Amino acid sequence: MAGTSLRCTDCGLQNICFPPAFDDSALSRISEVIGQPPLLSKGQALYQIGQPHHAIYAIRSGSIKTSIIQLDGSELITGFYQPGEVVGLENLGHTDCTSRAEALEKTTLCVLPTNQLTTLSRQLPELQQHIFNLMSTEIRADHQRLHLLGARSVEARLASFLYGWIQRLEHRKLAGSSFRLPMARADLANHLGVAVETVSRSFSRLEQLGILQVSGKAVHIHDSAQLLVMANAQCA
Amino acid sequence: MAGTSLRCTDCGLQNICFPPAFDDSALSRISEVIGQPPLLSKGQALYQIGQPHHAIYAIRSGSIKTSIIQLDGSELITGFYQPGEVVGLENLGHTDCTSRAEALEKTTLCVLPTNQLTTLSRQLPELQQHIFNLMSTEIRADHQRLHLLGARSVEARLASFLYGWIQRLEHRKLAGSSFRLPMARADLANHLGVAVETVSRSFSRLEQLGILQVSGKAVHIHDSAQLLVMANAQCA
DNA sequence: CGTAGCATTGATTCTCTTCAAGAGGTGTGG
DNA sequence: CCACACCTCTTGAAGAGAATCAATGCTACG
User: Fold this and answer.
1) Do A212 and A185 share a structural domain?
2) Nearest Cβ partner of A143 from B90, B147, B235?
3) What is the Cα–Cα distance from B193 to B191, expressed in whole angstroms?
4) The total number of structural domains that make up chain A
5) Which helix (H) or strand (E) holds A57?
């Protein structure tokens, strides 16, 4: 697979990683710095806490979870990432990783070495702009996640998470109302800041309300509008 | 006050906004783009949701809170900022503001116009690096905030918030164990995702435990080590 | 000095956690 | 291909913790 179909101009996710503002020559130059794409199997780490930071990564297929560890050893999952999304931005501008990224399933990625990316972005204003955009979008996403955790009821948190997840899927034209959640219930519970059992119960409740249908990791949304209402209900 | 003491080389916060990596000539060039510093009174907005994004801001004195609004109109305070910290990074790379920044007290700022900052950063690699650093630090701070909200007990959340707040104060050599929280209880409650009454009760409990002393907005930390223990206890 | 908003404290209700058990699914080895 | 074991997910009951409602104290500011 080495070297083949690594050019952004050939990639189906072209307009997602690097939007239309980029012309072909710019994309070609970006493609030149993209490294060998690693293939991660389920549970394998992309980077670990304490490792030196070398690159950021664009997901081609599969999914990634990122997490931080507190002093007491407890883990918090900070985010789940889909194909077309960029992972590792929290390390840009730092020498070491303070977080961990792990594949939730078989996952392929594009490697964007930091050094080359920053150098290139000085020459390509649209790339510089795009990196700023990616990073600030990440900040905004984190703010949404904060809102998610701040939401009073767990059902609202779950609804909010699901709604956001679907929106991102749709933005990348990856799914309609039926999709498969790549993460385990325990991961989801951790990310939402609640107990696993509560997540299960919340799923059941949303199912009883006729909003969605769940069977393990498979989810089908019946009433997207109602899901949005749930997501925004009972907030601080 | 216009034009006076706006040069980074003269500023007491010099090593905070722009660390030692910058030489005088770089600082001078940065200083040249710094705009008229607005003086905000308590409650006044620095930028609002929906406004076009023009600049990021470094706080010289005072404090700022940033917040987002959900579709249902509920507000979530995403962060509180101290002197020496940079506000507005979530808008870099975007045309419009999706958040609101408001002064918690009388506040002075340096204005860093985005256009000039991005242009200059293409010429000064250390500035580019520093902007990346600021943004990724913001992402990391948000991840810490996520952990804070994910913490089980409210006491742990409050302890975690206070510990982080003190660390930032100390990093800027602004305070020891006694300080004044600029935000109202309601703001703090909102940020921590709990009810105002619960914040009050948690303060009282920490006081009973001999960890700190509270009198309105004034806080004195007796046992910083114990506060850290509290902050990390009972996490997910 | 008085008023209005902010902060604390108390009592009750409700949600989520915890502990416990059972169901469903998956993967491995016979 | 089936059986068994393991693991994840779901469901139930009891208890703890926070939200809510309500009232009182406190502080700041005109």
Assistant:
1) yes
2) B90
3) 5
4) 2
5) strand A55-61
Query: Which of A103, A127, A146 is the last residue before a domain boundary?
Result: A146
DSSP H/E element including B64:
strand B64-69
B128 vs A122: CB contact, 8 Å cut-off?
yes
**Contacts of A196 by beta carbon, 8 Å cutoff, 6+ apart:** A185, A186, A189
Q: Point out the residue among B99, B129, B145 whose CB comes nearest to the CB of A93.
A: B129
Shortest CA gap A178–chain B (Å): 24
Strand D: positions under 7 A of a protein C-beta atom: 8-13, 17-22, 26-28
- The two three-digit tokens of residue B54, written as one number: 């023009």
Q: Of B146, B163, B191, which marks where a domain is finished?
A: B146
How many whole angstroms separate alpha carbon B98 and alpha carbon B91?
7
CB contact under 8 A, B75 and A136: no
For B109, the 3-state DSSP assignment is strand
Q: Which domain holds residue B194?
A: 152-232
Q: How many residues does chain A have?
A: 236
pLDDT band at B12 (very low <50, low <70, confident <90, very high): low
At residue A71, the pLDDT reads: 76
Q: What is the pTM of this model?
A: 0.88
**Tens digits of residue pLDDT in B32-62:** 777 766 789 999 999 999 999 999 999 988 9
Exposure of B171 in the CB half-sphere (CA atoms within 13 A): 14
Give the number of other Cβ atoms within 10 Å of residue A50's Cβ.
9
Number of helices (H) and strands (E) in chain B: give both, helices first: 8, 11
Whether B78 sits inside 8 A of A150 (CB atoms) is no
Contacting residues of B for A232, CB less than 8 Å apart: 70-72, 74
Identify whether residues B79 and B52 lie together within a single domain: yes
pLDDT tens-digit profile of A160-206? Answer: 999 999 999 988 777 778 899 999 999 999 999 999 999 999 999 99
Q: How far apart are CA B235 and CA B101, in angstroms?
A: 30
Compute the distance between CA of residue B98 and CA of residue B171 in angstroms, rounded to an integer. Answer: 29
The separation between CA B153 and the C-alpha centre of its own chain, rounded to angstroms, equals 24
- Separation of alpha carbons A232 and B109, rounded Å: 34
The pLDDT score that the predictor gives to residue A153 is: 87
What confidence score (pLDDT) does residue A65 get? 96
Tracing tokens 């490697």 back to the chain, one arrives at: A111
Task: Specify the residue for token string 């510093």.
Answer: B37
Q: Closest protein residue to C8 using CA and C1' atoms?
A: B200
> Quick one: pLDDT at residue B199?
96
Residue A3 within a domain: no
